[in-house]
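Protein record

Derive tokens from sequence
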Amino acid sequence: MGKKIIFLDIDGTFTEPGCNTPPDSAVEAIRKTQERGNLVFLCTGRNQGMAAPVMEFGMDGIIASGGGRIISGWGESEEVLYDCPMTEEQRVRVLTSLEKNGVYRTVECLHDSFTDESFKEFIAQSATDANSELLRWRKQIEENLNILPMAEYRDQPVYKVIVMSPEKDNILKASREWVDDFHLLLQEPDRYGIVNGEIVNKNFDKGQAVLRVCEYFSIPVEDTYGLGDSENDREMLETVGTSVCMENGAASMKEISDVIAPAVTEDGLLKSFGELGLL
């Protein structure tokens, strides 16, 4: 049996959304599959700084910022395989267009993220038990996952921008100024009409990142597994040899996946790794 590469989303897959500590069973799954010679990469929309606490659970590498930065190893042994922040011109164009159209922005840099000062107040007023995306962001801010006030931003390179607005038209209007360079990935409006999404460079996505890692290790894509739960995992799930969606995941992702795993809170990784012969 040849070496496999397993790509794991974080929020809703390896951990509960907005959390840095996975279930013990998930850590056990990682350890046991690595003992068989397999590699485990995080494949996340989080930037490197926000994902750092999760890397400490023994990962072999990370695809961060939705594919914008790829690292093999970690710490002293890490090697950067790919790095693609926005150009300065792109950064100015994107952030300026969002600001003038009244869209809340969270910019993700290499280690830190910065959010408009009014954003926390907005989500605190809007978040309810029925709005998991807003709750996830509020929890991340409250737990200080390197999300800082925009006033502290000093023009560091930006890999990705998170957008949120009560008006979808505001986001779409802003996007006219940069749509040739970036994908706009919007979630459906929640029950209160709040729209959120991501602005991602067309030069990369999670699927392209999977192929870059496979090329580096000379491992066929057929020998890869991807586990995710949400729309931003689509390219990864469509690219890997075997795609797995968590039971707590989006219906649209279950439709395109080969396997449905138990929820992250139900020892989903350990059970699915066992069924897939990865342990």
User: Anything to note?
Assistant: The longest strand covers residues 195-201.
